[in-house]
Amino acid sequence: MTKLRPKFKIVDNMMPAPVSNLKVTTRAETVFTGLRQRIVEGEIAMGSKISEPELARYYDISRSTLRDALSRLEGSGLLERKANIGYRVVTLSTEKLLELFRVRESLEGMACYLAAQNMTAAQIAELRELLADHEKNEALQQGEAYFQKAGDLDFHFKIVFGSANQLLIRLLCEELYYLVRMYRFQFGMASPRAKKAFTEHHNIIQAIEDKDGELAEILMRRHISASRLNVEKRMNTL
Amino acid sequence: MTKLRPKFKIVDNMMPAPVSNLKVTTRAETVFTGLRQRIVEGEIAMGSKISEPELARYYDISRSTLRDALSRLEGSGLLERKANIGYRVVTLSTEKLLELFRVRESLEGMACYLAAQNMTAAQIAELRELLADHEKNEALQQGEAYFQKAGDLDFHFKIVFGSANQLLIRLLCEELYYLVRMYRFQFGMASPRAKKAFTEHHNIIQAIEDKDGELAEILMRRHISASRLNVEKRMNTL
DNA sequence: TCAAACTAAATTGTCGACAATTTTGAAATG
DNA sequence: CATTTCAAAATTGTCGACAATTTAGTTTGA
Question: ipTM for the complex?
Answer without folding.
Answer: 0.90
